[in-house]
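In the design runs reported in the main text, the only information available to the sequence generator was the tokenized backbone. The following block is the verbatim input for one such run; it is reproduced so that readers can re-run the procedure and compare outputs position by position.
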């Protein structure tokens, strides 16, 4: 009888111990998810840039970029145009195929926009930078080689990356203002914001992301932008980093749909 009671006590204790280990849901607890949006990118590590790095091919990350910034209260991002106007922004260029076609559409419709340039692309296609500037668009630094994890580097390396990109832009278009920095994937950190501001650049985010980098149909891109935009909005689009035929096809409808309600503006390059 005493032996059976002892065995029962062991069973109760063992069962109680298992309950604590597995939690209320009956499954072993797992680590908390990363604050960045799904799908998270897994880019290859990038070496820190030198002042005059060699050009490389257009950035083509193996996974889709993150599109939601980390949530911190130690920094403030620019998420609006600063007025009632709506700003179109184009990331990852300049690209020899898509950027000229985007510029053609904008010029035909009298629209000014903001181009967030990647340093390796600038170095490879300086004439396109000069065309962007000559046609009255605003420039934005988008890192040297689209480094998704740039903000996790030391501040010295972040600064080197941003300065190398600015230097490449100025080599192509001397003296042009570069008043904005946009972190690849929107993967902001306090360090990236701090360094950008120290170099005179506002950390530029967005309010509308139609996820054109996923290559949906042009009609889907147009609908997402027109329905999702409000006064003062900043629209994220891409003119490089992959096949941008659907973005290009969507652009006339985006311009027409937004102009029915808002003024389209370029972001100011003077503060």
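Verbatim output:
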């Amino acid at each position: 009888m005493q032996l059976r009671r002892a065995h029962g006590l062991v069973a109760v204790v063992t069962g109680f111990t298992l309950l604590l280990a597995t939690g209320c849901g009956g499954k072993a607890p797992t680590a908390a998810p990363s604050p960045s949006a799904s799908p998270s990118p897994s880019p290859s590590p990038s070496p820190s840039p030198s002042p005059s790095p060699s050009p490389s091919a257009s950035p083509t990350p193996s996974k889709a970029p993150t599109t939601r910034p980390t949530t911190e209260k130690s920094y403030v991002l620019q998420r609006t145009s600063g007025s009632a106007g709506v700003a179109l922004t184009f990331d990852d260029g300049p690209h020899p195929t898509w950027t000229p076609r985007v510029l053609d559409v904008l010029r035909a419709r009298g629209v000014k926009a903001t181009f967030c340039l990647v340093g390796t692309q600038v170095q490879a296609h300086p004439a396109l930078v000069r065309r962007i500037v000559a046609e009255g668009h605003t420039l934005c630094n988008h890192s040297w080689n689209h480094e998704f994890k740039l903000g996790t580097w030391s501040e010295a390396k972040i600064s080197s990356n941003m300065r190398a990109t600015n230097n490449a832009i100025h080599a192509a278009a001397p003296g042009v203002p570069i008043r904005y920095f946009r972190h690849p994937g929107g993967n902001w950190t306090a360090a990236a914001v701090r360094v950008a501001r120290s170099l005179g650049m506002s950390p530029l985010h967005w309010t509308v992301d139609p996820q054109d980098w996923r290559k949906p149909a042009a009609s889907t891109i147009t609908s997402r932008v027109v329905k999702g935009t409000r006064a003062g909005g900043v629209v994220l689009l891409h003119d490089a980093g992959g096949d941008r035929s659907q973005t290009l096809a969507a652009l006339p409808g985006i311009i027409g749909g937004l102009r029915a309600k808002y003024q389209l503006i370029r972001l100011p390059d003077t503060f």
